[in-house]
């Protein structure tokens, strides 16, 4: 495994072991690759709307990370998160994009009945409080905010993370 940034490590530390991990807007896939290599998660899904990002990530995965018979399975999805056609469960991570993009993905998956996650870890580029307030209203019957916003200093900027857990 390679060293994650402080923010990515904080996210990784809040993934739910034994469950699937959905890495939305995955870019280089560092979080998902570390989750796969750890063997602590049943599945890792890499989701990005940019086809060449997903193609390059999948090629890198097959060349450098794939292990025959691994406990963790990997899947690659080249489409906007809101266009997924299968249910998402376990830990859903959406970071590095705007609050409106995160809200659109979460609301659309929920409306389609595909949001079956146990935990949402959300890291908008800005407007964290607005996103938190809207999601607390939108997800009120399904999820609760697990804690106060977590924050980490990254490149001179205070980055915030929102964590919502499924209400049992």
Class inferred from helices and paired strands: alpha/beta
Beta-strand residue percentage: 25-35%
Mean pLDDT: 93
* SSE string, helices as H and strands as E: HEHEHEEHEHEEE
**Largest sheet properties:** 8 strands, mixed
Terminal residue distance: 33 Å
Low-confidence stretches: none
Q: In one word, what is the shape? A: globular
Specify Rg, calculated over alpha carbons: 15 Å
Task: Describe the model.
The chain is of the alpha/beta class and 168 residues long. Helices cover 32% and strands 30% of the residues. The protein is built from five helices and eight strands; from the N terminus they run αβαβαββαβαβββ. It has helices at residues 6-12, 30-38, 51-64, 99-111, 128-138, and strands at 21-24, 43-48, 73-78, 88-95, 115-123, 143-145, 150-154, 157-166. Strands 1, 2, 3, 4, 5, 6, 7 and 8 form an eight-stranded mixed beta sheet that branches. Helix 2 (30-38) links the parallel strand 1 and strand 2 (43-48). Helix 1 (6-12) packs across helix 2 (30-38). The radius of gyration is 15 Å and the shape is globular. It starts with 5 loop residues before the first helix and ends with a strand. The mean pLDDT is 93.
Write the layout of secondary structure elements.
Blueprint: H1 6-12, E1 21-24, H2 30-38, E2 43-48, H3 51-64, E3 73-78, E4 88-95, H4 99-111, E5 115-123, H5 128-138, E6 143-145, E7 150-154, E8 157-166
Parallel strand pairs: 1-2, 1-4, 2-3, 4-5
Antiparallel strand pairs: 5-8, 6-8, 7-8
Helix pairs in contact: 1-2, 4-5
């Amino acid at each position: 495994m390679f060293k994650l940034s402080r923010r990515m490590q904080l996210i990784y530390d809040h993934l739910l072991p034994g469950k699937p991990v959905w890495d939305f807007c995955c870019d280089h896939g560092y979080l998902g690759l570390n989750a796969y290599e750890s063997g602590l998660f049943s599945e890792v899904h890499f989701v990005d709307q940019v086809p060449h990002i997903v193609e390059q990530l999948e090629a890198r995965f097959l060349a450098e990370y794939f292990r025959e018979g691994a406990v963790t399975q990997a899947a690659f999805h080249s489409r906007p998160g809101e266009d997924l056609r299968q249910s998402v469960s376990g830990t859903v991570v959406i970071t590095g994009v705007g609050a409106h993009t995160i809200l659109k993905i979460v609301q659309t998956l929920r409306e389609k009945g595909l949001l079956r996650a146990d935990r949402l870890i959300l890291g908008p580029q800005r407007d964290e409080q607005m996103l938190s307030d809207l999601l607390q209203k939108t997800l009120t019957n399904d999820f609760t905010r697990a804690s106060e916003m977590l924050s980490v200093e990254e490149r001179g900027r205070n980055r915030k993370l929102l964590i919502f857990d499924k209400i049992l």
